[in-house]
User: What shape does this take?
Amino acid sequence: MSNIAEWFNNSLLGSTVISIPSIWVDGVVALLLLIGSGFMLIGSWGLVKLPDFFTRLHAPTKASTLGIGAVLFASLIWFSVRDGGLQIHELVISLFLFLTAPVSAYMMGKAALHRQQPNLERTRNVHLAELAAKQQSPAANDKKSDKNSDKKSAFHQTE
Amino acid sequence: MLTWVVILSTVLVGIAMILCLYRLFIGPDITDRILALDTLYINSIALIILLGLYHGSALYFEGALLMAMLGFVSTSALAKYLLRGDLIE
Assistant: This one.
């Protein structure tokens, strides 16, 4: 078994340079890596399995974000212990992903509402979907209303 | 032990990327395909972090950060294009 592992490490993947700082750090990093990759697998499986776009939107945006948070946290712990001092590169990446995942999920959901994707039979409050698809930004509503007469309507007329 | 755990995690993330590719091919509408691309770039960030952990090199973070920013920009650009029919109005 060790022979096969040695062959696998040397021939296929190149020499490994992972050095073990301590057994506890090793265990914590391994646990976080397994949790993270498991959650990413669950998120992608839900992307394949779920029946509807609006339910499908839930799986990657929650589970995959949690999974990549765990993987990045494992990498942060390992490099911080190896090099000494706090390495904040991964923290920057995970903060960026945690900020941008809801924004991109909202934009994809709005695009799907606009394209009138079919949703499940048991979806609640379906009659609100048409209203939400037509909803515009506040600036567009200001252009339509007659209250702002001066600049915007003049600009609108010249258009 | 950690070497084998990193390899196992890489395999799990690879299976997740294959599932995303399946959804990218069969997706009934274009919004499903955009969602699959979004999940695919998040998975590839995890893959590149695992590669950096495997080689013990801290040089991969800049690539991962760049991929995160470009992935968000491309996802929001595609969604905006679907929503408005134009990118820069």
Summary: The radius of gyration of chain A is 25 Å. Chain A touches chain B through 57 residues (CB under 8 Å). The longest helix of chain A spans residues 23-49. Helices of chain A lie at 2-12, 23-49, 53-56, 58-83, 89-114, 127-134, 138-144, 151-158.
